[in-house]
Amino acid sequence: MPSNQKYALITGASNGIGYELAKLFARDQYNLVIVARHPDELERVASEFRQQFGVEVVPIAKDLFQPQAPFELVDEVKSRGLQIEALVNNAGQGQYGEFVDTDIRRELDMIQLNIATYVVLTKAYLREMVSRGSGLILQVSSIGGELPGPLQSVYHGTKAFVTSFTEAIREENKDSGVKITALLPGVTDTDFFNKADMTEAKLVKEGHRADPADVAKDGYEALLAGKDKVVSGFMNKVQVAVSNVIPDNLVAANLHQQAKPSTKDE
Predict the structure, then answer these.
(1) HEC profile for 176-224?
(2) Which of 198, 181, 178, 182 is nearest to 190 (CA)?
(3) C-alpha angle with apex 213: 153 to 215, nearest 5 degrees?
(4) Which InterPro entries match (predicted)?
(5) pLDDT category, 2, cuts 50, 70, 90?
(6) pLDDT, tens only, 195-215
(7) 175 vs 2, 134, 158, 179, CA distance in Å?
(8) Which of 127, 136, 195, 261 has the fewest CB atoms found within 10 Å of its own CB?
């Protein structure tokens, strides 16, 4: 396919890991379809990438909390006659607090964004990719999907779904010519924790936050190499490996302590 016909569709592309992934695709001369909620932020990013990389950038503002939004996105891309060579499901949010106290409407919105949107977009574009025998799908999951997450129970549950779902469809389509990879970051320096009201959690306030550019690079390189999944960051790899040999109740208890509000002064 001529390079100027290649499009990468990236959700949550206006900041954080999604922005850094969009930059990597643009640097390799993919045209972009970038998706986020706020039109002004999308236009700013689109202008930046057009100027910096000389690629076409199509910004599409969608509130992916809404059940119909991913279907509308697929229809709009189709109406523009764009062929998606790479799909990056990145948009996701969390909520901090004990499950008995948290807002069920917010949690249902998270399930819609973190799970249903991934499923709808993957279904639509995987079918096209399999039919032509090529394509790339990067699913941004989390090490949270590998670990029980007290004070983030629904978020961790959604990411467990994403990782399991990705591994299953990868096996189903391993001979199709389509590369499917799950990226599992840990705590990363993005706006995620502000949106989740989690900035005071010990693991956020006192712990190391990865650079989203480094996380994106790990995911991008793993995708191009055809790897099944990549845990970004050495200490995150260690944490996941240790959790596989320690009883789940002890892992949960440890993470509960890490997630509790910090008592450390600024």
Answers:
(1) CCEEEEEEECCCECCCHHHHCCCCCEHHHHCCCCECHHHHHHHHHHHHH
(2) 198
(3) 45
(4) NAD(P)-bd_dom_sf (IPR036291), SDR_fam (IPR002347)
(5) very low
(6) 777 677 666 666 777 788 999
(7) 24, 10, 27, 10
(8) 127
**pLDDT > 60? residue 266:** no
| Domain architecture of the chain: domains with CATH | 3-259 (3.40.50.720)
Residues in the chain: 266
pLDDT in tens, 78-126: 999 999 999 999 999 988 999 999 999 999 999 999 999 999 999 999 9
The verdict on whether 155 is a catalytic residue reads yes
Give me the catalytic one of 7, 96, 155, 220.
155
The span from the CA of 234 to the CA of 185, in Å, is 11
Query: What is the C-alpha separation between 110 and 125, in angstroms, rounded?
Result: 22
